[in-house]
Design brief:
The complex is a heterodimer of chains A (133) and B (390). With 133 residues, chain A is mainly beta. In chain A, 7% of the residues lie in helices and 35% in strands. The two termini of chain A are 28 Å apart. Chain B has one domain: Peroxisomal Thiolase, Chain A, domain 1, CATH 3.40.47.10. In chain B, strands 3-2-4-7-1-8-11-10-9 form a nine-stranded mixed beta sheet, sandwiched between helices. A two-stranded antiparallel sheet of chain B has the order 5-6. The chains are: A mainly beta (133), B alpha/beta (390). At the A-B interface, strand 4, strand 5 and strand 6 of A face helix 5, helix 6 and strand 5 of B.
C-alpha cells in the first residue's frame, strides 16, 4: 500500500469505499489516530503510516433514536452506539439488525460498509454501520 | 472574604423566553438590553459601553450571520466594537469569559456581554439538524447521530456504571419544572409529575420528551465593569470571582469517559482555584441541563457530590429549592428554555437576581456565592463562572 496518500478524512473515506477501515499511526510516538490526522496531536510529528483496523468489536454504549434527523427519515427507530474495536480504538455508528431487547453493552459487532451513492452535492461521505457479529 | 473580584456585574437583562412569534433575534436582544439599561440609570450606554460581545450559535436559523454588528445597532450601540462568539450552546459562556478578559486587560472599562437565539420558527427536524452541527460531521451526524442521541449515549453508560435509573433522570425534569413554575420569564411555567415525565414519548432511549430541554427564543445580557467603578452604577454589584474554560474532542467517541465531561472538570478546577472556594461553599448554581443526564453529570463534574453519586443528590431533594444546594432555580434549560446562544449569560442573569435578592418566590435564602456551568455540544466546550454577593 502506498504510504504517500495524504493522512486525511477524505482519504479514509476513499479506503471505506474499498471496504477497508484505516487509521494513521504516528511513526514517531506510535499513537494510532482514528480518524487520521496529518499531524500527531501528541508529538506534533507528521511522519505517519496507514494501518488497517480490525472490523469487529464490542458495544461500549448505545441509544435508540426515535426522533431522527432529516437525512435518516423512515429509518427510526434505529440504534446508534460507540464500538470499541479489538485494538481499543473507538468508532461510533448505526447498529442494524438488532432488536431493542437484544442490544446491550458488551455485545460483539462487526462493521459493514455501505456503497456510496454518487451525487453531485457535497457531502459524499460514505456510510457504514455495525451489525451483530 | 474569599476571592478577589475580577469584574463587577452592575446590571443585567433577560427577554421573555418562549415562542416569540414575529420577532427577530435582534429585536429580542433589544428587550434584554432595555431591561439592563433601565436597571442602571447612571449609565449612558452609547458613551460608556466600550465593547459588546454576543454569543450566537447558528446563522442557519435566520439566514443571518454577522451577529455582533447587527445586535449592537439594535441595542442602541451603533459604532461600538461588537464581536460574536460561537461555541455551540456555550456561546455566551465563552462571550462572558472574553468580556471579563476585555475589562481585565484595561482596554474596555465597561462592556456589555450577552447572547441570543431565535429558533422556534423552524421545524423540529430543522432544529435537530442545526443543533447537531455542534457535533462531529463525518462520524456522528452523517452516521445518523443526533444531539439527544449523544447525551443518551452518556445516560446509558452512566446507568450501566453507577446504577442511575430513568426515574432519577425524570426527577431532574420534575424539579426544574417546579422551579420554572415560579419564573415569570420561563418558557414553560408549569409543574409536571414524575409519571408524566416517565410516560412521555421516546426521543433517544433512555431520554424521553421531558428529559430534553426546550426549543426556545430568547436573549440575555450583562453589563460588566472594573470593581472600583461599580459603585458609580449600582449599590448592589455582583462580583465575578472565578472563571474557567476548557475544550475537548469534538467527537464524544474519542473521549476516555462517557460519564463525565473532562472540559467541565478542568474549567471548574480553574474557577474554584481562582475564586478560592470549594464546591461546599456554593449556595446556588445554574448548570447546563440540556438533557436531564447532563445535570446529573454536572453535579459530579462540579464536585457537588462524589463521582457516580449524583442520583443520591436528586433523590434526596438536596438540589431543590430549600435543599442544601439549589440547582437551576430559574427552571434551567429544561423549563426556562434553551435559546442556545443566550443560555450562558441567562444563567449569569439568574445568579445576578439570586445574589442581589431579586429572585422573588424562587429566592435562595441568604445566597452569597453562586456558580454557573455552561456546556457546548456534547462537552467539547465548557465554561464555569463563580459569583459573590458584594
Amino acid at each position: 500500500m502506498s504510504q504517500t496518500e495524504p493522512f486525511t478524512i477524505e482519504q479514509l473515506c476513499k479506503y471505506m469505499t474499498q471496504h477497508k477501515l484505516m487509521a494513521a499511526r504516528c511513526m514517531n510516538c506510535g499513537k494510532t489516530h482514528f480518524p487520521p490526522r496529518p499531524m500527531c496531536d501528541e508529538c506534533y510529528s507528521k511522519d505517519m503510516e496507514w494501518t488497517e483496523l480490525p472490523t469487529t468489536g464490542k458495544v461500549l454504549t448505545y441509544t435508540v433514536i426515535h426522533l431522527e434527523p432529516a437525512q435518516c427519515q423512515a429509518l427510526a427507530p434505529y440504534a446508534e452506539g460507540i464500538v470499541e474495536l479489538e485494538n481499543g480504538l473507538r468508532v461510533p455508528g448505526m447498529i442494524k439488525d438488532v432488536s431493542a431487547d437484544q442490544i446491550r453493552i458488551g455485545i460483539p459487532l462487526t462493521i459493514e460498509f455501505e456503497d456510496c451513492k454518487p451525487t453531485t452535492q457535497w457531502p459524499q461521505w460514505p456510510r457504514y454501520h455495525f451489525r451483530p457479529a | 472574604m474569599k476571592g478577589k473580584p475580577l469584574v463587577s456585574i452592575v446590571s443585567a437583562g433577560l427577554s421573555k423566553f418562549g415562542k416569540l412569534e414575529g420577532l427577530y433575534a435582534r429585536e429580542i436582544f433589544a428587550d434584554a438590553a432595555k431591561e439592563a439599561f433601565d436597571r442602571c440609570p447612571n449609565l449612558n450606554p452609547k458613551k460608556d459601553i466600550k465593547a459588546l460581545y454576543v454569543g450566537h450559535m447558528g446563522e442557519s436559523y435566520e439566514h443571518q450571520g454577522h451577529t455582533g454588528a447587527t445586535i449592537a445597532d439594535w441595542a442602541g450601540l451603533l459604532h461600538v466594537p461588537a464581536t460574536r462568539t460561537e461555541a455551540a450552546c456555550a456561546s455566551s459562556g465563552a462571550a462572558l469569559r472574553v468580556a471579563i478578559q476585555a475589562v481585565l486587560s484595561g482596554l474596555s472599562d465597561i462592556v456589555m456581554v450577552g447572547g441570543v437565539e431565535k429558533m422556534t420558527h423552524r421545524t423540529t427536524a430543522e432544529v435537530t439538524e442545526y443543533l447537531a452541527m455542534a457535533s462531529d460531521f463525518p462520524f456522528e451526524q452523517w452516521q445518523g447521530m443526533t444531539f439527544p442521541g449523544l447525551y443518551a449515549l452518556m445516560a446509558t453508560a452512566h446507568m450501566h456504571e453507577y446504577g442511575t435509573t430513568e426515574k432519577d433522570l425524570a426527577l431532574v425534569a420534575v424539579k426544574n419544572h417546579y422551579h420554572g413554575s415560579m419564573n415569570p420569564k420561563a418558557h414553560i411555567q408549569k409543574e409536571i409529575t414524575l409519571e408524566t415525565a416517565l410516560n412521555a414519548r421516546m426521543v433517544a432511549w433512555p431520554l424521553k420528551l421531558y428529559d430534553c430541554s426546550l426549543i426556545t427564543d430568547g436573549a440575555s445580557c450583562l453589563i460588566l465593569t472594573r470593581p472600583e467603578l461599580a459603585k458609580k452604577y449600582t449599590d448592589t454589584p455582583v462580583q465575578i470571582i472565578g472563571t474557567g474554560q476548557a475544550s475537548d474532542t469534538i467527537g464524544l467517541y474519542e473521549r476516555e469517559s462517557f460519564t463525565s465531561l473532562a472540559a467541565a472538570r478542568i474549567a471548574a478546577k480553574q474557577a474554584y482555584e481562582m475564586a478560592n472556594v470549594e464546591p461546599s461553599d456554593i449556595d446556588v448554581a445554574e448548570v447546563h441541563d440540556c438533557f436531564t443526564i447532563a445535570e446529573l453529570i454536572a453535579y459530579e463534574d462540579l464536585g457537588f457530590c462524589k463521582i457516580g453519586e449524583s442520583r443520591k443528590l436528586i433523590e434526596s431533594n438536596e438540589t431543590k429549592l430549600g435543599g442544601r444546594i439549589p440547582v437551576n432555580t430559574s427552571g434551567g434549560l429544561k423549563s426556562k428554555g434553551h435559546p442556545v446562544g443566550a443560555t450562558g449569560t441567562a444563567q449569569a442573569y439568574e445568579m445576578y437576581l439570586q445574589l442581589t435578592g431579586q429572585a422573588d418566590r424562587r429566592q435562595v435564602k441568604d445566597a452569597k456565592i453562586g456558580l454557573t456551568h455552561n456546556v457546548g455540544g456534547s462537552g467539547a466546550t465548557a465554561t464555569v463562572h463563580i459569583y459573590r454577593r458584594d
